[in-house]
Amino acid sequence: MAKNPDTASRIADNKKAAFNYFFEEKYEAGMVLQGWEVKALREGKVQLTDGYVVVKQGELFLIGCQINPLKTASTHVNPDAVRTKKLLLHKDEIRRLVGKVEQKGYTLVPLNLHWKAGKVKCEIALAKGKAEHDKRDTIKEREGKREVERAMKGRNR
Fold first, then answer.
1. Beta-carbon neighbour count of residue 13 at 10 Å?
2. Which of 33, 63, 116, 128 would staple 37 via disulfide (CB 3.0–4.6 Å)?
3. Does residue 155 sit within a domain?
């Protein structure tokens, strides 16, 4: 199970994931990256919202995560912004996830990318899709919190 990385080490967040899914379990996976991708991540040139995780032949892959190359990328490297990236987890964790993903309604969603001990990690979650009424409840809850904060802010002046 993954612990929440502090905000200073965060590279990118998938904010749409919490709106579209209920999270059952969270895992922290390593990523297989090329050099130009690591440099682009240091500059924050990543977009994670369209990303999803698939299982192929007992391995996990991150698809749809866009890492835009820097303009100063080497000329001998042919950067592909939407390249499929392999995720690294222990075999027993992968087996457990495969069993759960095969159940109806479960999927694997990337939550964020962050640094840990100089390495890029991807926090993924076993998630179940929200129904439309659940999304409306989330919006109502968020709006209610905003109204309370506004009222408290106006009262404290």
1. 17
2. 33
3. no
pLDDT of residue 73: 64
The CATH number assigned to the domain holding 73 equals 2.40.280.10
Rounded Cα gap, residues 143 and 138, in angstroms: 9
Q: Tokens for 60, please give them.
A: 């996990």
Task: Compute the Cα dihedral for 133, 102, 61, 4 and give only its sign.
Answer: positive
The single residue listed with the structure tokens 């964020």 is: 112
User: Domain for residue 156, yes or no?
Assistant: no
Higher pLDDT: 30 or 130? It is 30
Q: Is the pTM of this model over 0.70?
A: yes
Length of the chain: 157
> 3-state DSSP helix/strand/coil percent for the chain, to nearest 5?
35, 35, 30
Structure tokens at 108: 């694997």
CA-closest candidate to residue 37, choices 86, 64, 9, 73: 73
Phi-psi bin for 63: left (phi > 0), alpha (psi -120 to 50), beta? beta
Q: Give me the amino acid identity at 106.
A: Y
**Amino acid identity of 23?**
F
